[in-house]
Amino acid sequence: MERLERLVQDDESRQRRLFTTRELDYCRGKRRQYEHLAARFAAKEAVLKAFGTGISQRMRWTEVEVLNEESGRPRVELTGSVANFAERHGLTDVDVSLSHSEGLAVAQVLTVWKTDR
Amino acid sequence: MADVDSAVKEAVVEALALDDDEVTPDSTLMDDLGAESIDLLDILFRIEKSTGVKIEASDLGDHIQGGIPDDEFSDADEVITEKGAEQLKKVMPQTDPSELAGSLKAEEVITLFTVQNLTEMVKARSDGAG
What we know:
The complex is a heterodimer. Chain A is α+β, with helices and mostly antiparallel strands. Chain A has one domain (about 1-115): CATH 3.90.470.20. Chain A is built from five helices and four strands. In chain A, helix 3 (about 20-30) packs antiparallel against helix 4 (about 35-50). The longest helix of chain A has 18 residues, at about 35-50. By secondary structure, chain B is mostly helical. Chain B has one domain (about 5-120): ACP-like (Non-ribosomal Peptide Synthetase Peptidyl Carrier Protein, Chain A, Orthogonal Bundle), CATH 1.10.1200.10. Chain B is built from seven helices and no strands. Chain B has helices spanning about 5-15, 35-50, 55-65, 70-75, 80-90, 95-100, 115-130. In chain B, helix 1 packs across helix 7 (about 115-130). Chain B is globular. At the A-B interface, helix 1, helix 2 and helix 4 of A face helix 2 and helix 3 of B.
């Protein structure tokens, strides 16, 4: 968490390379915005690892967007090359949970696919 | 602009908290040096700061694939084609197309990317910009 904060703190350009406007708006409204951003970064990384692609595909961090329902429950929206990859490989559902405290951000992701990949 | 070779090495050493002699031009960023995605971000941000050359994580994939469409770069099983392997040879000269074609998974390509490959990419970008 500290590391992500160091990388993007007070740097609008870097933040916008990693997070969408909706993610930034949500997190900036929080008292501990960098905890929330770090949890979202962890979720993006977890989604891409669940795809088996890690950072090898030509994805952008903003193509995995972590949003919150009114209830506060997080959900994932995919766009661009990540969405194309998901569609091509039969992704039907992504479930995500986030937690952050004491300097650590953790995300768990469950992906459901139509067929073996 | 800082000397690109030393700027890239310094970025890698500092981002990964390694000793200077642990990082050689032939070191692969992920397999040899253990870089994760946040490390790669850190490295690219440091290079941008010292050289002014801006590279997005997604640019690495574009650079490696060289504009070849996905379905020509790898086959239906996501394994690198001969055409894909020939492209890899251009941007990662240490690779041998005859060994990679038909065996390397597309998602594993990035694991072969070395410090020298990154250095050459930064140099090409800085030449293009200048």
